């Protein structure tokens, strides 16, 4: 059954708006859900409410069908992992990981075996006797993860666990965490403002904005079928063009192609909002070579006013500002959203 969040409201004294404004959410047994949203949208507040660290102004949090109202944090059977894992400096790595097992009075031999198993799972086999002060930031968060998983929590709550680390390491850790959570069958809610991290780690991603959950869907579905313009804009869709038959065509970051003047030049502006339609003329503002391809910033009117857009280059290498290029919509990089 897993986690059930029903109409949860979190309200801070003196605040003008609710931090969490009526959220419903289900996380199935064994599922990894990422909560993604801009800073201040209420992700942490929701996570803390689930943990029991923040009181509910309204609503219910249930686990396996049981209402958790009145159940204190340490009785919920949840594991917590925050940005700074806050390891015990006076304990070595092994005894950090063993902490929850000691408080649960797990016998020593079993503890030792479990610590070994978890250090192995997080890629730190043999680190038992290392002082935590000698670890790198990434190693510390791995130890914190192993410590949180050691007592086999029925739900693991992670709040931006890698945001203090550099990008490359974060990307590797996101992959590793997913592997560890799947290997241990752990149910998890992972709070992040990093799109790539959310899409890498999660089975489903929930997009939050201003205290509300706008959409929850598997990564690819979320990307291909954003439920609203707000979700699409948050994901990085750059323009919204009205369609003849209603709705909007959302143009993604790879949804526009630019071709040089004279390469099968457009006859004129195409029908707005129809992928594959004849091209529109656009004026080059600038360009950048990134991730192995040329991204051209253009000014164009796709049918919703003249604006700056990014197009991928087809056979154009860094055209000079002011040059005219033909831009076409690439259906593979576009999505249809309701108004
Ligand atoms: N203890 C508190 N007292 C008063 N207001 C708070 C408190 N904690 C958070 N808030 C407010 O509640 C809103 C939601 O904050 P929250 O930390 O849940 O957002 P978040 O999405 O996790 O943001 P971030 O990614 O920056 O941590 C914000 O407007 C924040 O200022």
Automatic annotation (TrEMBL):
Q: One Pfam family this chain carries?
A: ABC_tran
InterPro entries from the entry?
Answer: AAA+_ATPase (IPR003593), ABC_SmlMolc_Importer (IPR050093), ABC_transporter-like_ATP-bd (IPR003439), ABC_transporter-like_CS (IPR017871), ABC_transpr_FbpC (IPR015853), P-loop_NTPase (IPR027417)
Q: Which domain of life is it from?
A: Bacteria
Q: Name one GO molecular function term.
A: ATP hydrolysis activity
- Locate the region Disordered: 257-278
Please provide one cellular component term from the Gene Ontology annotations of this protein.
membrane
Residue ranges under compositional bias (Gly residues)?
Answer: 264-273
The protein's matches in PROSITE patterns, at most eight in alphabetical order, are given as: ABC_TRANSPORTER_1, ABC_TRANSPORTER_2
Q: What class of enzyme is it?
A: translocase
ABC transporter domain boundaries: 3-235
Which keywords has UniProt assigned to this entry? ATP-binding, Cell membrane, Ion transport, Iron, Iron transport, Membrane, Nucleotide-binding, Transport
For this protein, the Enzyme Commission number is 7.6.2.9
Query: Can you say what this protein is called?
Result: ABC-type quaternary amine transporter
Q: Which organism is it from?
A: Xylanimonas oleitrophica
